[in-house]
C-alpha cells in the first residue's frame, strides 16, 4: 500500500534529485528516506529512479508516477480544507424553493442579501 508519507518523500527526491538534500528538506536522515523510497517502489512494482554513483534520475515510470503523486497530494490537501471549512460552518449549501410569481418580487431581493 502506498502512503502519503511515501508520496511526500518521493516528490522531495524528485524536486531535489538528491537524497541528502531531500532528507534535509523533510527534516529526516537519509537512511529512512531511502527506505521509504524502496518501500514505495516495492508497493508500485516499478523502479522509479535510475541510480548511479553520482546522480539519480527518474525512469519513465517515475515520471508518470510523479505527475499522479502531485495530483494526489493536492487533492488530499483540498479534501482536508473542505472538511475543515464544513466543520467550522464556513461553507455549505442552501436550497431555496419558490413559486413562479414570487420569483419576480421576492427572489431578487433575497439573492441580493446573500
From TrEMBL:
Stretch forming the signal peptide: none
Highest taxon in the source lineage: Bacteria
Domain HTH lysR-type stretches: 2-59
Record has Phosphoprotein as a keyword: no
SUPFAM superfamilies: Winged helix' DNA-binding domain (SSF46785)
Keyword field contains Iron: no
Pfam families, sorted: HTH_1
GO molecular function: DNA binding; DNA-binding transcription factor activity
Entry keywords, A to Z: DNA-binding, Transcription, Transcription regulation
InterPro entries the UniProt entry points to: LysR_HTH_N, WH-like_DNA-bd_sf, WH_DNA-bd_sf
GO cellular component: protein-DNA complex
PANTHER family: HCA OPERON TRANSCRIPTIONAL ACTIVATOR HCAR, TRANSCRIPTIONAL DUAL REGULATOR HCAR-RELATED
Family: Belongs to the LysR transcriptional regulatory family.
Listed name of the protein: Transcriptional regulatory protein
Organism of origin: Candidatus Burkholderia verschuerenii
Upper taxonomic lineage: Bacteria, Pseudomonadati, Pseudomonadota, Betaproteobacteria, Burkholderiales
